[in-house]
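Figure 2 data, in text form.
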Amino acid sequence: MLDENELGASVTKSNLKQVGRLKGLIVDGSLSVNQYMYYDSNTDRLGLGTEEPNAALSVAEDGIEVTIGTEDFTKGFIGTFASHDFEIKTDNETRLSVSAGGSVKIHKDLKVAGKLAVGVNNPDPSVDLHVNGSIRFNNKVHLSGSEPPRAGSYNVGDIVWNSAPVQKSYVGWVCVQAGNPGIWATFGEIR
């Protein structure tokens, strides 16, 4: 049935070129809106600015495609599809940057609510900070070794913690005169 205000339920094909406001729309199959938004029903992917989205949701602009999806049925991801940097912003300010090569930079305060491990695959659960290697703390280098350094530039206050302490030896060595390698004195006699 047709009348001037309705298409009847029996109308299954039409060449409509223009309609007014839609209150609901169900589309079976792929969809293109204004040659900007694309839904591919074969892959169940939605692309804004791209006909060939590389994830469940892809937004492409200026040659960069930002993707949101899942991987290997085990994890979700958000990032760029090709070799492009990625930033997370709030208040239009960059808060976190990931370079195309994988370097991560935090642009604001970092608060860690749990434990932190640096360069460690299996962190010690009994400590809050586990670092595999030298650190700089209060602008002083802290190393581990069986003797003071024989090469390299060091500053007053840099410390080498003794990696093999025994009785009648010392906890470590402290740099008392800057240089290459500087002058080192023992500290913390072990009795």
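Caption note: The chain has two domains: 25-109, 116-189.
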